[in-house]
Amino acid sequence: MVNSNLQAFNLAVSTLLKTPSHLLPNLTIPTFLDLPEHLGPHLTRNSSSSSSSSTEKNTPQKTPSIRALVIDKDNTLCPPNSIDFPKAYLQKLESLRTSPLSPFNQTNNPQGILIVSNTAGSRPSYEPEARDLETRLQHLQIPVFRATQNRKPFCGPEVLAWFRERGVVTTADEIAVVGDRLGTDVLMAAQMGAWSVWCKNGVTHGVAGSQQDGRVDLDYRGFLAKVEVAMERYLRETCGIAPRVPPGWEG
User: Per the record, which residues fall in region Disordered (predicted)?
Assistant: First the structure.
């Protein structure tokens, strides 16, 4: 079996050397708790299109219409290698699914959120975890994606097809990928032509009933994730590189 983690690492290194803008997120937030309900206006804020002179020409700025969310699990919704949600993170998911104004309201857009993980649902050995996760989120109708061939960042075409088959989106630029890793989540968004949202600090809250219950200052990021923080800052601040945007949004 090909080591998909090694493949992903090699792709991230190749991307860094050739097209580093594909590793920069369209929107950076501290944690999932800071995800705006209406993403569109926030996604172009740091992109190349936002630096154009459209305002001076009195032409309106295009705003993405986000109809679908792809959300990572490990260190985005839950601590790594866990399906236990910190209370605030579960409440955030519930708000996205129940708020009357949310584009991802489960009544009006029942299949507008999909969890795509490199653990749960990514291979047969993680199937029990995927089923348990779906059981916990049954009241919110949030499914876990089952990868048939590739894991992140290579499964973008399959994810896009999943949403298209269900009539949620017609094009990839109606999707936002939300996760804590540049080399998997943000890079997958770039590969599939979607928008990316980077949860820079990952999960910072303790899970109820655990030894960390009540804490809001946790840091589950591993070595590579911390390297990505420095890399993102270097590319953006020192090199002056702007995030890539989906085709047609170049400005």
Answer: 40-66
